[in-house]
Amino acid sequence: MRSKQSNKPKLLWIQGVTCNGNSHSFLNLPSLERLLDSFELLYHPTITTKYSLEDITECKIASDIVIFEGTYDPKMKRNDISIEKLLHFYAKNAKYIIAAGSCASFGGMFKAVSPERNSGILFNEEQKSGPLCSLEKKVVNLSGCPIHPEWMAYVLEMIAIDREIVLDELHRPVELYSNLAHHGCTRNEYFEWKVDTKGFGFKEGCLFYEQGCRAPMTHASCNKILWNEVSSKTRIGTPCFGCTEPGFPRRNLFRTQTNMSIPQDVPLGVPKRSYLTMTGIAKTFHIKRLEGKLIDYKKTH
Amino acid sequence: MITKKLIERIEGEASVYFKMKADKVDFASIVFPHFRGMEQILEGKNGLDALVITPRVCGICGHAHLMATVRALEDAYKKSGFRVEISQKAKSIREFTLIMEMIQNHIKWFYMVAAPELDKLLGMEHTSKPLKGAYVASLAAKAIAVFGGQWPHSSYMVPGGVTSDPTYIEILQAKSIVDDLIAFFEKESLGVSIEKFLSFESCKEFNGISSDISLFEEKLIQAGMHQKGFAHDNFLVMGEHSFSKATKLKHTRPYSVDVKYISTQDAYVENSQESYAKNALYKDSYYESGPLARLMASSFGMVKNMHRRYKDSAYSRSMAKVFEVATLLVAAKKLLESIDISEKSVASMVAIENVTAEGIGIVEAPRGPLIHKVTLKDGTISDFTIITPTQFNIGSSSREKPTPVQEAMKGNTQQEALFIFRTFDVCSVCTTH
Amino acid sequence: MARITKEERKQGIISAALKLFSERGFYITTIPDIAQKVGMSVGNFYNYFKSKDILAKELVIYISEYLGAEIRQINERDITTQEKISEIVSMYFDMAEEKPEMIEYFLRVYLSNREVFSEGCEGMICVSAFVTEMMMFFDDGVAKGDLRNQDFFSAFGLFMGYLGGMVFLFGEKILPEPLEWYKKSISQNIYHALKAE
């Protein structure tokens, strides 16, 4: 007798070298229960499922959707079975393979553990030379460190309603990764008029010129789909570290790389000359409202 | 004969090697199979980059790592001769988000690990919804995000304070989230108000109350956990916070502590399997750390009574986590009320390139003391050492000198031992980092 | 006979104005003076430049764009940073010799009469074309590892202050040798002052 379960796509979440950040971020999804109801969850590293890790490493059941979290290290083993074997078996039999996080997408934070052999499942930083090259048509990269749970929900729901997910050249869904982390930051006006924040801990000022903010160069929806439904790094004064891009993690993250006070990297697609001309003009003007405190608590009437 | 059991859903895995005597555990060794080398990754990096790297040691307690790192960096600043004056506002905000992570952790442990595993041990069908725990935990994460921008993996603490400069909008938002958390915890988990719960003399007062925790408590007794899972009855707390006092307890006697007495040694496994973990010791002895240790150190009435009857059994260890959620929720509210938004968020500090010194940062992470030791040379990391709480609790040593978990597992069936193992709330990724 | 375009007319006014300002001085030269030199009526002149102040600002922008274009050409050549410095110095000094009215206007009118330019030429907006190209030069030099990374104004001040100073001395007829003669040593000094260790 066919149970209701058997019509739902099978979902499997396995890990390489990871901190579990993407798993925990996923657990923050408000609609988690409802989302998981659309799938038959075979295995997840934190949620109790029908199958245990021991069952999964036997490689007997195929899954329609495979989510891989963590850097791919072919020599790593889970329950004494190599990740290479696990990924190969599950990827071969899946319709969709989702890289959850920057480690699985590009190598990320833990590529440095063994730089010569660690990579993402499809990309090794920017090069398409990961283990799943021959299956690249099935791979969706959700880069981020960690991913936002709504990004995973988007992909899974699109799969559940059988809609094509349009991807960019790094296999990231264009609907999630076409915005820059810069779009929607509450400090935008300071960016427009080139008012830098001097140091950390202020509501005022843009973090791009001195504090290392990568948001104008980073594809992410962080200031559009807010984190934990309430906020984002840049809104509370922490610079964006560019975690959705292949270069993450970069170095000297809290300081903007400048050459003679000129930012090394300017907003994506903007010619440096154009940027410098605009900046030069904007920096000439001293807009009193923007250079003072945003909120004047001493105002009485 | 040695049986190997794989334990998963401990933020990674571990293997327990049981040596049995009939159907009871004679001795057990623990192996953690994965290693990433975070300390090597940190070498050569700018000191501030550690604020982004160390949270990635762990997805469930990364925020504790962030605080340990920022404290270590600030200590290095001080040792280099610079004054570090963090405003009370910044201290309170940091403490608040640390507490929220701890609450999130314990709730997940309870609903997603302990409760289902206890039912499994008793051969019962697990009826409660583990995802309930995920929902409640997400509220705590939301409260962190109000100040920290996001959870997991915020890096909003910098030397001198915090990057966020909140208004009362954020304070009230956080308060509202904490109120929602409390409402849920009281209604679903406790079955009574937190005030009432914290005034309990003993868990007998749960009688007549039907809630997730009262049921759990009954089942712990049913499984005999109040008479099993005893470790050495010694406790260690190293982090100084509004909710914890650094102290060591030999049974109930308190002693002062100093971080210089903490040492680590390679894990020892009887059948010479390779474990990447290192055991952590205080003055060459093993101590239990975590919620039970912290509550014992704070002389919390109900816990003292519980300990009088049940010592450091698996029961006490488990119930302590529940108690701690309640006390932390109260502490969190107090912190929010105390925040003066007119204070500075970050004290002005010189550039980190001016710092050449060794700094130590200690925090109480959900499972116990988390220690970061950083050596900076002109602001660049030349050495970084991390000691995590699971190294204190879940070491692997010899029969002559068993670690807390090894002592606790002895003399029980394998199934019981595996549950007792979990009452320590193990974090595999932190242990080997 | 080909009709002179508006653009060529405008160019004519600019050249004439610069020459007159250079020969007679900024304040002494009047609009009628300039109009007469170009051979147009004063009324027609005002079709091109609405006032002397506006003309003054347009001249700064014109010179800045001219200099900017020259430096851009140098920036885009496939030569070393050291060679670029020589080229910029050479171009600047050549301009000072061949078109003295341009650099002179910049040094003696723009920099010395700030009150004329306070409205509409705040800060560096009117010279942005030139400053932007210098920024591109510095950015490229540091990125390549040829120049020492430092504050922009420290480097800019050294480079441009030095060149401006030399041209000023040249204009005062204090330099014993022609400007050409100083190109090599000045380029060398600038390079050694700015280069990476």
TL;DR of this structure?
The complex is a heterotrimer of chains A (301), B (433) and C (197). With 301 residues, chain A is an alpha/beta fold.
Draw up the topology in text.
The complex is a heterotrimer of chains A (301), B (433) and C (197).
Chain A: E1 10-15, H1 21-27, H2 32-37, E2 40-43, H3 53-56, E3 65-69, E4 77-78, E5 81-82, H4 83-92, E6 96-100, H5 102-106, E7 139-142, H6 149-160, H7 174-177, H8 188-192, E8 258-259, E9 262-263, H9 272-284, H10 288-291
Parallel strand pairs in A: 1-2, 1-3, 3-6, 6-7
Antiparallel strand pairs in A: 4-5, 8-9
Chain B: E1 2-7, E2 14-21, E3 24-31, H1 38-42, H2 50-53, H3 62-79, H4 88-121, H5 130-148, E4 157-158, E5 161-162, H6 168-190, H7 194-198, H8 212-222, E6 234-237, E7 247-250, E8 253-255, E9 262-266, E10 278-282, H9 291-297, H10 301-310, H11 314-338, E11 357-365, E12 368-377, E13 380-387, H12 389-393, H13 404-409, H14 414-423, H15 428-432
Chain C: H1 6-24, H2 31-38, H3 42-48, H4 52-75, H5 81-98, H6 100-110, H7 114-117, H8 128-143, H9 152-171, H10 179-194
How would you describe the shape of chain C? elongated
- As for the CATH topology of chain B, it is Cytochrome-c3 Hydrogenase, chain B
Multimeric organization: heterotrimer
Work out the largest interface and the residue count of each chain: A-B, 60 and 67 residues
**The number of domains of chain B:** 1
CATH class of the largest domain in chain C: Mainly Alpha
Protein structure class of chain C: mainly alpha
The CATH superfamily title of the largest domain in chain C: Tetracycline Repressor, domain 2
Here the CATH topology of the largest domain in chain C equals: Tetracycline Repressor, domain 2
Query: Spans of chain C of 5+ residues with little confidence (pLDDT < 50)?
Result: none
Structural account:
The complex is a heterotrimer of chains A (301), B (433) and C (197). Chain A is an alpha/beta fold and 301 residues long. Chain A has helices spanning 21-27, 32-37, 53-56, 83-92, 102-106, 149-160, 174-177, 188-192, 272-284, 288-291, and strands spanning 10-15, 40-43, 65-69, 77-78, 81-82, 96-100, 139-142, 258-259, 262-263. Chain A has two domains: 9-177, Rossmann fold (3-Layer(aba) Sandwich), CATH 3.40.50; 180-291, Cytochrome-c3 Hydrogenase, Chain A, domain 2 (Irregular). In chain A, the strands form three sheets. A five-stranded parallel β-sheet of chain A has the order 2-1-3-6-7, sandwiched between helices. In chain A, strands 4-5 form a two-stranded antiparallel sheet. The radius of gyration of chain A is 22 Å and the shape is elongated. The termini of chain A are far apart. Chain B is α+β, with helices and mostly antiparallel strands. Helices cover 43% and strands 17% of the residues of chain B. Chain B is globular, with a radius of gyration of 21 Å. Chain C is mainly alpha-helical and 197 residues long. The radius of gyration of chain C is 18 Å and the shape is elongated. The mean pLDDT of chain C is 93. Chains in contact: A-B, A-C.
